[in-house]
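Design job #97: recover the sequence.
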């Protein structure tokens, strides 16, 4: 037999009404009581009757999640974080991948909006391409931006400090003695632009002149990093160190460098961003800048559910998950420390 509200109430010694109110996030229930009830509901494998809830509350209890690439472990970890908050509260997730295609993203959003209570969105669009998003927010769409920002859009968001990501990565390479630090720039997304800004700030702080020839346009995939670096190798103008805007691009770059018969980190030091889950298991473990993806997903889910439930003060919130440098072998710091 499936677990009922009455079963949870009996197990905890509270009323069925208290359990119902906790699961529906009623303001009269204290955070401590709500947490205890939600924990019991999860342990007892409680599954709410979604149809009955929808009829009663005029909600679908579905949250849409739109991300650029579900094959990327980065976004899979974010989705897992969303799920850990949404499921205990009775919300299910509809997840779509857009393949970094802004037009595909808009069609997925149009399809999801009528079926869901709101969306969590990591947009592939350029930060300034906001006409579509301004329209749907005017039409009262509930949206939380995650990982990536859009200019002038008034909605909650959860990001890391991407300027700091660029600063941490670049400054680490400069502190190791490199003066020709290259950058694989990423896509048009805000994450790439802000990390590039951090790269330039670190150069300025260390009085290293900015050299546009040391910056290469690149996407966010391993293929993008490989192709950009392969072309760089053929030109014969490689720097002594590279900061790639994300880990997959860094891993692709490392493949191109190894293919050219060069060594990492002896010939070229490498730092990425994002700390994807297998970066420490590479033949040469990748130095990166890390932040908690599950924490980002959890924060976004809470913000969206607060929006759905009409809580005040949510629309202007910007949650920032702090980044930190993770030093591994690809930058050469370990070898230098041992020398």
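Job complete. Output follows.
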């Amino acid at each position: 037999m499936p677990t009922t509200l009455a079963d949870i109430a009996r197990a905890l010694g509270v009323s069925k009404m208290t359990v119902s109110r906790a699961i529906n996030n009623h303001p009269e229930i204290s955070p401590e009581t709500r947490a205890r009830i939600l924990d019991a509901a999860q342990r007892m494998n409680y599954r709410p009757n979604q149809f009955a809830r929808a009829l009663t509350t005029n909600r679908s209890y579905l949250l849409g999640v739109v991300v650029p690439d579900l094959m990327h472990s980065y976004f899979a970890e974010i989705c897992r974080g969303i799920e850990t908050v949404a499921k205990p509260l009775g919300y299910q997730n509809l997840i779509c991948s857009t393949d970094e295609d802004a037009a595909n993203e808009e069609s997925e959003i149009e399809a999801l909006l009528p079926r869901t209570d709101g969306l969590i969105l990591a947009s592939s669009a350029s930060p300034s391409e906001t006409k579509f998003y301004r329209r749907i927010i005017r039409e009262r769409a509930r949206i939380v931006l995650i990982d990536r920002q859009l200019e002038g859009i008034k909605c909650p968001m959860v990001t890391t400090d991407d300027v700091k990501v660029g600063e941490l990565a670049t400054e680490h390479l400069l502190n190791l003695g490199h003066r020709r630090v290259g950058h694989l720039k990423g896509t048009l997304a805000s994450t790439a632009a802000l990390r590039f800004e951090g790269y330039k700030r670190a150069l300025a702080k260390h009085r290293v002149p900015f050299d546009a020839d040391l910056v290469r346009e690149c996407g966010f995939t391993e293929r993008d990093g490989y192709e950009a670096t392969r072309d760089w190798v053929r030109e014969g103008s490689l720097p002594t160190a590279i900061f790639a805007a994300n880990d997959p691009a860094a891993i692709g770059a490392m493949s191109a460098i190894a293919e050219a018969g060069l060594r990492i980190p002896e010939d070229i030091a490498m730092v990425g961003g994002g700390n994807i889950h297998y970066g420490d298991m590479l033949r040469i473990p990748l130095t990166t800048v890390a932040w908690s993806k599950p924490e980002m997903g959890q924060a976004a889910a809470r913000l969206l559910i607060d929006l759905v439930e009409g809580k005040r003060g949510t629309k202007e919130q910007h949650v920032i998950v702090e980044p930190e440098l993770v030093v591994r072998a690809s930058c050469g710091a370990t070898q230098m420390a041992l020398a």
